[in-house]
What does this fold into?
Amino acid sequence: EVQLLESGGGLVQPGGSLRLSCAASGFTFSSYAMSWVRQAPGKGLEWVSAISGSGGSTYYADSVKGRFTISRDNSKNTLYLQMNSLRAEDTAVYYCAKDPTLPRIAAAGTNRFDYWGQGTLVTVSS
Amino acid sequence: DIQLTQSPSFLSASVGDRVTITCRASQGISSYLAWYQQKPGKAPKLLIYAASTLQSGVPSRFSGSGSGTEFTLTISSLQPEDFATYYCQQLNSYLMYTFGQGTKLEIK
It folds into this structure.
């Protein structure tokens, strides 16, 4: 059974940092691209960042570029999101999600997120 | 950037109704579109990908169609558990995933 379990959320002051983790199980982790998707309270879904299966390619939404860093440790089956210079508008539930299409990130027509974690809440407030 | 615009943003319907939600892309995206259902406090659930392929385990009352710039999600006969928010999503040529703004389906 595929499972994705996020952790690391919490309350942080503006300008602060936080690292989220997503522990994966039930599939060959290194074979799939992974993403972080967030949802601000009462708002829609916003893709944040993606990483290829090998970890060699990373992509970011403009809203987080230069502040967030996605990474993965395939030996630990874990995805990470390092968040620096946090702002109030970063307050959201952060989900990790798996794209089963390809190990690399490519517009193949079948790109989708077939499994999601339960989410971890990040609150940026003084 | 390709924008996805869903309509309507809110939809009120009754059990047994047939409902259709539309997702329009700002430029052609072939069949590169997925649909999700999200219930309050829960993670999104994949319903359809590649515009019309039903995800394993999803009831057949859900269907998707379209290509190019206009796509639809249809629920043939609404069930009580279908009242939720629905999102469309695609991966653009810049390798950035984009979601529509969502359609909230409420009980009439």
